[in-house]
Design brief:
Layout (H helix, E strand, L loop, with lengths): L1 E3 L1 H10 L3 H8 L3 H8 L6 H11 L8 E3 L11
Antiparallel strand pairs: 1-2
């Protein structure tokens, strides 16, 4: 399952914040910000801090995208 933070970047634009503003407000490292920018996993505590700063829920900033489509089998 892949992680996608496109919703986070859209929310930052809506709030008039830069990535640097977010990094400073949450106290995250530049390495963590780089992982977010590359859509790599980060700790849930980091996501919690982001949600507190942006006053939102985790589903507002992160999406999980399946690697492969899930095929449902019909019941016999």
């Amino acid at each position: 399952m892949a992680t996608n933070y496109n919703s986070l970047w859209k929310k930052l634009i809506d709030k008039g914040m830069s990535k640097t503003d977010l990094r400073i407000a949450t106290g995250m490292s530049s390495g963590t910000l780089a992982r977010l920018s590359k859509c790599e996993p980060v700790e849930t505590t980091t996501l919690e801090k982001i949600c507190r700063v942006l006053q939102c829920n985790i589903g507002d900033i992160v999406d999980f995208v399946p690697d492969e489509p899930i095929v449902m089998q019909e019941k016999s």
